[in-house]
Amino acid sequence: MNLIERPTAATIETHGLRKHYGRTLAVNDLTFTVVPGRVTGFVGPNGAGKSTTMRMILGLDTPDEGRALVGGRPYRGLRTPLRHVGALLDANALHPARRACDHLLWMAHSNGIPARRVDEVLDQVGLATVARRRAGAFSLGMKQRLGIAAALLGDAPVLMFDEPVNGLDPEGIRWICGLLRGLAAQGRAVLVSSHLMSELEDTADHLIVIGRGRLLADTSVRDLRAQASGGRAQASGGRAQASGERAQAPGAQTQASGERHGLEQISLEEAYLRLTRDATEYTATEDGT
Amino acid sequence: MMDGFPDVMRAEWTKFRSVPVYLGTLLGAAGLMVLFAVLISSGSPGTYDQAPYVDRFRFTHRPLTGDGSIVARVAGQRADHPWAMAGVMIKESATAGAPYAVLAVTRGHGIRLQARFTTDIAGSDHKAPHWLKLTRAGTVITGYTSTDGSVWRPVGTVTMTGLPSTVEMGLFATSPGAERAVPMRPVLMRTRPGTAVFDNVSVTAPGPPWRTDDIGGAGSPEPPPPLGIEPTAVTVTTPAGDIIGQADDGSRVIAAVAGSIAGLLPLLALGSAFVTAEYEHGLIRTTFAARPGRVQVLAAKAVVLAATVFTTTLVAGLAAFLITQPLLRLQGFRPPTYPDPSLADPTVLRVLVGTAAFLTLGAVLALGVGAILRHTAAAVTTTIVLAMAPVLVTPMAGGPWPQRLGPLAGLSIQQIKETDDAFLLPWAGRTWTGFTLLCAYAAFAFAGGCVLMRRRDP
Description:
By secondary structure, chain A is of the alpha/beta class. In chain A, 36% of the residues lie in helices and 21% in strands.
């Protein structure tokens, strides 16, 4: 489609990002690349630094060290950023008295996006009938859809969604999974965060796992599965190593056997839990699965 | 910075018009302006509802029969108002409203020879200490001034037909305050008592003893100091009083902007909320993700806010002006004393446009404070306190400086006659000084907001 005239390459890169708030080190030496054409899951326990990283990518929070680039350029240097990156950070970030369509309209105006895009994206997320309702009256699920509409507004080659599944019903979750895969299939780079591996395992092709602000794994879902299965076979191997490269080698063969044994779902979740166990900020309660 | 600025302004305008409470606040401010104008124009003419003059002061005097003169050196004058007088007087009798002629130094208008509430002759620019002499020859009164008491320069003469052979002659001081306030405006400025210290007092012929009277009920808490038989040094203190005839004080125009302060308060809240609401709802991140230029965003907000507030308040001011004219005529504010004001008059335009600009600057100031504090309640409280605190502390402060230095000094742009009122008093005669100060406040708050927005993570 209009991929050709897209001005930036559909990538997100971070190089040695570091950010602290007071004494808390939120993100520590984080380096990864999000490439186009696939859904990249950004997973880690609550407080792992996912949202902070996304804010730094969007030029909202200034990193103490390192830098984040979108299509090879710093976000703050983009003239019409919504045409380069569509992002959903916080579905509640709305003025409650403003109508849904006006919320999208001011965003469109700010980047010279034609007003008809507002109706298009509202239609796309299924909010066309409530477009003229005040956003404050929306349920969390509707706010998520509005936030996704805002991310889609600029038809951007790079998309970021911070916990987009929150507040959605099962039908909504299925819808968003299909949407994310569809966006990736169009050649866009899609970064989706979640603190639950289960939300992403059917959607993501690739995973970036962080804990306590550090990169724990940068691996394809298939490799993590394979690694998890392998780890399970070795049983006493302790926690999995935070290294995509190591997991890559035995990948292909073990994945098939894992599926055959019907273990893959447990394994992936378990692999994630092992990866993040030491890095979990709040250990009082385990993630229920 | 200017790259894509129209887009940002369009976005901010969309934000502004799509929140009903913003529009409601704006229209509410406009409504208050008109409401106050109408209410005030329906009231009594205030100061001049009893008599067409104010004649209230402390008078230390003795009779003079036939021709003669009084000489005194005003050694010192303490008063706030530029029109506060200290000098010598010949008055038909020691009652309010009786014909008079005075020669006085003022705080800000040099030497004046005045008579019968209508005549005002300007002398030299001297202030106290200065020598004054007033002579009577038949019905002709002549004033002289001198720097040394030996070389006298005439200031002018006034003729007072029908002056009886025995008149009262003496020393006086005034301290204009509420009397010079236009009835349309609240009197929030306190003026200190006017005190005049005289020495080298002499009159031509010795006669009956001196006495002190409070003309027009200018009662002083302190009794007059005892006077000798032929005193040469006299101190006269008038707590609050003035000698002035009813004249066009600008009421016909000022009534239209009587709601300036009432209109300002909601606009301060509006200006702050226009930016703080984004912080409170987390929307500021969406804003900066859409336009990373922090200064550009705040500038666009300021332009949109300024344009809407200015337009709305200018229309409200014009409406108030037109609505109040017939009401004011009904209340006695009509020619010849109060000529019909015209919109073509530059002064009228300055007051109406200047008031809209004053309110606009207030809103921009509040926007800047909002950007600095990022919290609606804190920002609204801060701006309202910043604006109104000088009004509250002025009666205690005993001087004009809180008024002069507060943002409300911007109301100086509404000054019509130099003689007027409370708020204008601090910068009497300097129309643009207070306004410039308010501009500085707004610019400072805006710049502070820009700096902090750039430096901080939202």
